Amino acid sequence: MTDPARRFPPYERHVFICMNERPADNPRGDCVRKGAPQVLERFKALVDELKLKPRMRAQKCGCLDTCEFGVSVVVYPEAVWYRNVTVADVDEIVHSHLIAGIPVERLRQHPAPRQ
Ligand code: FES
Fold first, then answer.
1. Which of 9, 68, 74, 114 measures 20 to 30 Å from 2, CA to CA?
2. Domain that holds residue 17
3. Residue 2 — pLDDT band, cuts 50, 70, 90?
Protein backbone atom coordinates (compact mmCIF):
# COMPACT_ATOMS: atom_id res chain seq x y z
CA MET A 1 0.00 0.00 0.00
CA THR A 2 1.22 3.48 -0.83
CA ASP A 3 2.28 5.70 2.05
CA PRO A 4 -0.05 8.75 1.86
CA ALA A 5 2.69 10.93 3.40
CA ARG A 6 5.12 10.12 0.61
CA ARG A 7 5.99 13.04 -1.65
CA PHE A 8 4.85 13.02 -5.21
CA PRO A 9 6.65 13.34 -7.45
CA PRO A 10 9.11 11.54 -5.20
CA TYR A 11 12.29 13.27 -6.46
CA GLU A 12 13.37 16.88 -6.58
CA ARG A 13 15.63 15.90 -9.45
CA HIS A 14 15.59 12.69 -11.43
CA VAL A 15 18.48 11.81 -13.73
CA PHE A 16 18.23 9.33 -16.59
CA ILE A 17 21.41 7.99 -18.20
CA CYS A 18 21.07 6.13 -21.49
CA MET A 19 22.46 2.63 -21.23
CA ASN A 20 21.41 1.42 -24.65
CA GLU A 21 23.73 -0.95 -26.49
CA ARG A 22 23.69 -1.93 -30.16
CA PRO A 23 25.76 -4.30 -32.28
CA ALA A 24 29.23 -2.88 -32.91
CA ASP A 25 28.57 -2.42 -36.62
CA ASN A 26 25.36 -0.41 -36.14
CA PRO A 27 25.90 3.04 -37.68
CA ARG A 28 23.90 4.79 -34.97
CA GLY A 29 26.35 3.70 -32.30
CA ASP A 30 25.24 3.63 -28.68
CA CYS A 31 25.89 5.23 -25.34
CA VAL A 32 27.36 2.14 -23.69
CA ARG A 33 30.29 2.15 -26.11
CA LYS A 34 30.84 5.83 -25.41
CA GLY A 35 31.20 5.32 -21.67
CA ALA A 36 27.67 5.31 -20.25
CA PRO A 37 28.42 2.61 -17.63
CA GLN A 38 31.12 4.77 -16.05
CA VAL A 39 28.87 7.85 -16.20
CA LEU A 40 26.01 5.97 -14.52
CA GLU A 41 28.33 4.56 -11.87
CA ARG A 42 29.68 8.03 -11.01
CA PHE A 43 26.20 9.55 -10.78
CA LYS A 44 25.06 6.78 -8.45
CA ALA A 45 28.20 7.04 -6.34
CA LEU A 46 27.80 10.79 -5.88
CA VAL A 47 24.09 10.53 -5.05
CA ASP A 48 25.13 8.10 -2.30
CA GLU A 49 28.22 9.98 -1.10
CA LEU A 50 26.47 13.34 -0.96
CA LYS A 51 23.42 11.81 0.73
CA LEU A 52 21.06 13.08 -1.95
CA LYS A 53 18.74 10.11 -1.48
CA PRO A 54 15.80 10.01 -1.28
CA ARG A 55 15.39 13.54 -2.69
CA MET A 56 17.23 12.70 -5.88
CA ARG A 57 17.74 9.67 -8.02
CA ALA A 58 20.04 8.68 -10.89
CA GLN A 59 19.11 5.65 -12.94
CA LYS A 60 19.74 3.97 -16.24
CA CYS A 61 17.27 4.14 -19.08
CA GLY A 62 16.89 2.92 -22.63
CA CYS A 63 17.71 4.84 -25.78
CA LEU A 64 16.77 8.52 -25.55
CA ASP A 65 16.98 8.76 -29.34
CA THR A 66 19.78 11.30 -29.29
CA CYS A 67 22.38 8.64 -30.01
CA GLU A 68 24.61 10.86 -32.11
CA PHE A 69 25.08 13.04 -29.03
CA GLY A 70 25.68 10.22 -26.56
CA VAL A 71 26.37 9.69 -23.78
CA SER A 72 22.89 11.17 -23.40
CA VAL A 73 21.60 12.28 -20.01
CA VAL A 74 18.37 14.06 -19.11
CA VAL A 75 17.44 15.69 -15.81
CA TYR A 76 13.85 16.24 -14.71
CA PRO A 77 11.76 18.13 -13.74
CA GLU A 78 13.54 20.80 -15.82
CA ALA A 79 13.91 18.45 -18.82
CA VAL A 80 17.50 19.56 -19.32
CA TRP A 81 19.26 17.34 -21.83
CA TYR A 82 23.02 16.85 -21.76
CA ARG A 83 25.16 15.65 -24.65
CA ASN A 84 28.50 13.89 -24.90
CA VAL A 85 28.67 13.45 -21.14
CA THR A 86 31.84 11.85 -19.83
CA VAL A 87 32.63 10.58 -16.38
CA ALA A 88 34.71 13.74 -15.90
CA ASP A 89 31.54 15.86 -16.31
CA VAL A 90 29.40 14.13 -13.71
CA ASP A 91 30.66 15.93 -10.62
CA GLU A 92 29.92 19.30 -12.23
CA ILE A 93 26.39 18.26 -13.22
CA VAL A 94 25.69 16.96 -9.72
CA HIS A 95 27.07 19.98 -7.87
CA SER A 96 25.85 22.67 -10.24
CA HIS A 97 22.53 21.31 -11.48
CA LEU A 98 21.28 18.76 -8.98
CA ILE A 99 22.38 20.59 -5.85
CA ALA A 100 22.56 24.28 -6.83
CA GLY A 101 19.86 24.20 -9.52
CA ILE A 102 22.10 25.68 -12.22
CA PRO A 103 22.28 23.57 -15.40
CA VAL A 104 25.73 23.11 -16.95
CA GLU A 105 25.40 25.17 -20.13
CA ARG A 106 28.50 23.87 -21.89
CA LEU A 107 27.01 20.35 -21.91
CA ARG A 108 23.41 21.20 -22.73
CA GLN A 109 21.67 19.96 -25.79
CA HIS A 110 19.08 22.57 -26.67
CA PRO A 111 16.01 21.40 -28.54
CA ALA A 112 15.53 22.41 -32.14
CA PRO A 113 12.51 24.65 -32.68
CA ARG A 114 9.38 22.64 -33.40
CA GLN A 115 7.85 23.12 -36.82
S1 FES B 1 21.90 4.92 -27.60
FE2 FES B 1 21.92 6.47 -26.09
S3 FES B 1 20.53 7.94 -26.85
FE4 FES B 1 20.36 6.29 -28.23
1. 74
2. 13-107
3. low
